[in-house]
Structure formats: structure tokens, C-alpha cells
């Protein structure tokens, strides 16, 4: 059978959608001729692009791409079809959008208040003393907050330490590089921008009031072993036989997997190999630049707060699917996420942004899915490394997690990306 053109046409479809809504393609490191070809001619028609996405999904059944690659492309094409439909003016509900763009079914999902109460009880144990739990948690956050005048030094120290750990445990090309930028008045805490070759810029919000443990998780998420590392290991070598590997589509099911992997990154490289214990290590790194962090307590608090992550998704559903308003959503965040009103409103800036309204799901469902997939693996670091070798759709990770500790991906999944030794020492 001749090579399938579906992967190439998937890339062209995404690049054409990006002409209509810049930002859908976050990164393209493949053949520049494909981008030029997609840019030629009159502006694409969204309805026609939606039809193209449906046609390409149907054609996947007749290819010899294998189950892993086919499943990945099918999920991505479903997302592109949804994005094209929205651009064509079709009404797409929030739950439908999340299902298509992130492979997550939120139909019928309701706040898990029993889970939230259990997390509150755990926090109550960790933070004893006078005052209400929200007051004690606020006091803890203030104690652990990174002073703004030391933020840059703290970021630089964490970058260096996490780079060293990531290089030793996962592998990095020699000439990769991250530059740091501090910004203000953003609806997000951090953002990675790929600059070409093996270089990225990590932008950190200077007015987000990040705790020491939060900052460590953010640097791990954005750089090592998160988004920058993925960029180096997945797209550091151009694969003409795998054009889809050079493309990052936002939003898409792959976003959920990569965001989940980035969120799990600190636990993978920061503590004992593939396990807990990152808190004391982070405290030691930050102490060298004069930033206080109660490592063991910070790690325990972060573990408890992780159980409250779905509260943010509740707020999105309340706003976009259940007729609530911003005040209702802010009240829900204050009650269950235990944040002051100002912080709740800041979270809602992201949730109400038309481009990012569904993206909260990637952080809530993505990390939970990747952690479930990693749990029980004989070597969690080695399993984490496979995420850079073969892109998997969320449904494929769920199937692998359900199959037990030895399953990495669906049948037929074999690493196809570069190993550390294959990554070039100079930018491509």
C-alpha cells in the first residue's frame, strides 16, 4: 500500500485553520514548504475545512498507519472539525466542545463535594491553629509566597536544578536553551513559546503571587521535563515520515496529554526516582537564593490541593453550560477551592476567555489521567519517557491505564520518536 497522505493533509488542514484563527497552531517545525502551500490562495472556507476533517477521519480506516497513530490522528481530526464548525458559525455547546477538542465527556458531571470535604479535612490536619481553614490556608500561602524581588533568581535556580535532573533521568540535547521573561497582567501563570531549533522562551507572571512549591511546579511544567523538553525530544529532529510530529495544535486531545504530563513532571524528576519527595529538594534549591520553603509541608499541601482541581472545571461548567454567572462561579471557587475573591476572579479571567474557556479541562483531567497511567509502573521515569516517543490520545492512555501496570499504550504501540542519543547536538 502506498504511503498515506492523511498525516500530511492533517497538517495542511491545521495550518489552514490557523490562517482563520491564529493560535490554533501553536508550533510547526516541519517542512516550511507545507506552511507556504497552506498559505497560498484565498482565505479558506471554515465549512469546507470541517468537511475535509470528516473526510480524513473516514480515510484513516483504509490506511496502514497502525492503531496508535490512527487513534491519535482520529482524535486530532475530530478536534479540528469542531474548531472549523465554530469558525463557520455553528453553535457548539461547551460540553460538546470539550468532548471534541479534549476527548473528555463532561455530560452529567457534577461537583464532587464529598471529595472536596475530604481534601478540606486533610488541609485542616496539615495546617492546625486558630482561625478558619481559609484563613490558615491564606496565611500559609503568604508565608510560602516568593518575594517579587527574588522571583527571577528563584526561577533561574529551579531551571538549572530541573535541567540537571531531567538531563540525567530523561535525556536532553546538548544545545537546548530556555530564556526567561517576567510579565504582568496576564490571565495565566506561565507560558512557553518555542523559538525554533532547540530554544524556548518561558514567560512567568510576576504578579501571580506564586508560592515556592507552585513556582517549582510551574518551571517543571513549562521547561523541564515539561513543554520545552517535549519540544526538544519530539520536534528536535524533523521526521519527514511523521509530519504530524512537527505540529502542535491548541486546543486538541494531545493538549490534554501534554499538559497532564507537564503537570506530573515535578513528581517524576524532582523527588526520589519516579516517586514522592520533591518538597525537601525544592526547599534546598530555593534556600540557595534566599527563598523560604517548608518542603515536606509544601508537598503535602500540594497533594491535598490537587484533590480540589476539579473545582475550576465546575466553575467553567457553571458558567458555560448551566446558566450560572460570574458571581456564582466565584462563590463556588471561594467555598471549595478556598481562595479569596480576588484570586477567584483571576481564575475566572482564564475560564471566560473565549479561546481558553475549555482549556481548564486539560489541567484538571490531563494530570489525573497521566498520573493514573504512571501509577503502578515498575519504572515511572521510563514510562514517562515514552510520552515523548509516541503521541497518544487520551482514550489510548485510558485503555493502557485500565490494562494494568505493564501496558504503556494500545497494542502495536512502539516508540518511534528520537531517543536521547538520536537528538542532534545543534538546533535543526
Summarize the structure.
With 428 residues, this protein is mainly alpha-helical. The chain contains 19 helices and five strands.
Count of discrete alpha- or pi-helical segments spanning 4 or more residues: 19
Broad shape = globular
Considering DSSP H and I runs of 4 or more, what fraction of the residues is helical? Answer: 55-70%
Biggest β-sheet: strands ordered side by side in the sheet: 2-4-3
Order of helices and strands: HEHHHHHHHEEEHHEHHHHHHHHH
Please give the largest β-sheet: 3 strands, mixed
Helices and strands: which structural class? mainly alpha
> What's the end-to-end separation, in Å?
31 Å
Note the beta-strand portion.
Answer: 5-15%
- Rg over CA atoms: 21 Å
Mean pLDDT: 90
Give an overview in words.
This protein folds into 2 domains: 6-92, no CATH class; 113-422, no CATH class. The protein has 428 residues and is mainly α. α1 runs antiparallel to α3, α4 (67-87) runs antiparallel to α5 and α12 (278-287) crosses α13. The protein has helices spanning 6-20, 32-39, 46-59, 67-87, 94-102, 113-126, 133-144, 151-169, 212-222, 227-235, 253-269, 278-287, 295-306, 310-320, 326-337, 341-351, 360-374, 380-386, 394-403, and strands at residues 25-28, 177-183, 190-196, 199-205, 247-249. A hairpin with a 2-residue loop joins β3 and β4 (199-205). Strands 2-4-3 form a 3-stranded mixed β-sheet, with helices on one face. It has a two-stranded antiparallel sheet with strand order 1-5. It has 19 helices and 5 strands. The model is unreliable at 410-428 (pLDDT under 50).
Amino acid at each position: 500500500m502506498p504511503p498515506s497522505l492523511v498525516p500530511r493533509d492533517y497538517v495542511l488542514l491545521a495550518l489552514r485553520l490557523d490562517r482563520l484563527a491564529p493560535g490554533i497552531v501553536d508550533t510547526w517545525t516541519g517542512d516550511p514548504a507545507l506552511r507556504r502551500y497552506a498559505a497560498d490562495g484565498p482565505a479558506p472556507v471554515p465549512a469546507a475545512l470541517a468537511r475535509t476533517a470528516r473526510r480524513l477521519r473516514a480515510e484513516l480506516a483504509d490506511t496502514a498507519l497502525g492503531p496508535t497513530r490512527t487513534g491519535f490522528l482520529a482524535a486530532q481530526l475530530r478536534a479540528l472539525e469542531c474548531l472549523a464548525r465554530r469558525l463557520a458559525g455553528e453553535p457548539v455547546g461547551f460540553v460538546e466542545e470539550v468532548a471534541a477538542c479534549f476527548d473528555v465527556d463532561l455530560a452529567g458531571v457534577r461537583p464532587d463535594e464529598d471529595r472536596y470535604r475530604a481534601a478540606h479535612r486533610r488541609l485542616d490536619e496539615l495546617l492546625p491553629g486558630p482561625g478558619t481553614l481559609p484563613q490558615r490556608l491564606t496565611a500559609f500561602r503568604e508565608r510560602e509566597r516568593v518575594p517579587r524581588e527574588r522571583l527571577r533568581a528563584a526561577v533561574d535556580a529551579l531551571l538549572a536544578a530541573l535541567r540537571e535532573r531531567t538531563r540525567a533521568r530523561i535525556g536532553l540535547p546538548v544545545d537546548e536553551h530556555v530564556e526567561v521573561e517576567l510579565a504582568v497582567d496576564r490571565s495565566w501563570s506561565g507560558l512557553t513559546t518555542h523559538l525554533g531549533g532547540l530554544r524556548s522562551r518561558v514567560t512567568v507572571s510576576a504578579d501571580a503571587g506564586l508560592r515556592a512549591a507552585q513556582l517549582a511546579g510551574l518551571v517543571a511544567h513549562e521547561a523541564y521535563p515539561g513543554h520545552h523538553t517535549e519540544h526538544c525530544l519530539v520536534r528536535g529532529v524533523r521526521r519527514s515520515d511523521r509530519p504530524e510530529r512537527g505540529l502542535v495544535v491548541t486546543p486538541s486531545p494531545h493538549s490534554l496529554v501534554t499538559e497532564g504530563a507537564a503537570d506530573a513532571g515535578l513528581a517524576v524528576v524532582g523527588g526520589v526516582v519516579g516517586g514522592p519527595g520533591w518538597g525537601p529538594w525544592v526547599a534546598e534549591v530555593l534556600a540557595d537564593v534566599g527563598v523560604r520553603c517548608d518542603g515536606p509541608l509544601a508537598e503535602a499541601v500540594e497533594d491535598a490541593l490537587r484533590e480540589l482541581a476539579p473545582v475550576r472545571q465546575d466553575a467553567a461548567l457553571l458558567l458555560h453550560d448551566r446558566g450560572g454567572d460570574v458571581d456564582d462561579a466565584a462563590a463556588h471557587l471561594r467555598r471549595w477551592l478556598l481562595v479569596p475573591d480576588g484570586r477567584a476572579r483571576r481564575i475566572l479571567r482564564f475560564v471566560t476567555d473565549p479561546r481558553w474557556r475549555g482549556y481548564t479541562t486539560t489541567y484538571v483531567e490531563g494530570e489525573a489521567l497521566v498520573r493514573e497511567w504512571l501509577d503502578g509502573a515498575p519504572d515511572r521515569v521510563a514510562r514517562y519517557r515514552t510520552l515523548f516517543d509516541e503521541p497518544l490520545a487520551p482514550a489510548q492512555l485510558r485503555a493502557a491505564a485500565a490494562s494494568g501496570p505493564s501496558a504503556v499504550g494500545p497494542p502495536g504501540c512502539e516508540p518511534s520518536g528520537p531517543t536521547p542519543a538520536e537528538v542532534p547536538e545543534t538546533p535543526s
